[in-house]
Amino acid sequence: xxxxxxxxxxxxxxxxxxxxxxxxxxxxxxxxxxxxxxxxxxxxxxxxxxxxxxxxxxxxxxxxxxxxxxxxxxxxxxxxxxxxxxxxxxxxxxxxxxxxxxxxxxxxxxxxxxxxxxxxxxxxxxxxxxxxxxxxxxxxxxxxxxxxxxxxxxxxxxxxxxxxxxxxxxxxxxxxxxxxxxxxxxxxxxxxxxxxxxxxxxxxxxxxxxxxxxxxxxxxxxxxxxxxxxxxxxxxxxxxxxxxxxxx
Length: 248
Ligand code: PEP
Prior knowledge:
The chain is α/β, with parallel strands linked by helices. The chain has helices at about 20-30, 45-55, 80-85, 95-100, 105-115, 130-135, 140-150, 175-200, 215-220, 235-245; strands spanning about 5-10, 35-40, 60, 90, 120-125, 160-165, 205-210, 225-230. The site of phosphoenolpyruvate has 14 residues, from β8.
């Protein structure tokens, strides 16, 4: 099974309109890239970035969405609004949303369903804390999140799963290649068991947690790693372009 690699950048709460220069540089640097390229800027930049990136190798996504298509939800954004602004993907269940906003699996599942309703690809994030890993519970936690956070009806087009150990996000620490392989093989087996071999083998599994130009190549070569979800190193076009290249 060949899965095209995906390099996805999560800008988190970083970037003003002036950051358009980084997007422009990334568009230039990734022309003809073998890997799929995605930037998820803050929501304020989605429409402008989508307009700039049209016709390039770079797709634009959101970092979160509400489960409802509209209504009295001050400050929230519907998946339909992201699509309307030009997004093709949305990250749901990022550990920072789970921690900062108390998001639980059922809510993440509803958000993924909303993404599908709007025609977006949902990037569903799962990952254990350091305490959970130290307690030998990493697979139990991540397996539970996977089961609880993905609605029925997943396809290789509408779903990407990102395994992001919480303790590796923004810390400069990465999981060992053996631990990444073990978790990604486990997630692949769970996807196959739930969605059948055709879909389960085709859904892409990203690794996230301090991926940078210097370690991307070895991480992307690990079994069942189909690319990366990249925070800090996606903010600078040169760094992210090097990661995209490593994914190709
Ligand atoms: C992330 O934001 O999903 C992430 C993995 O961040 P970083 O690459 O900075 O660890």
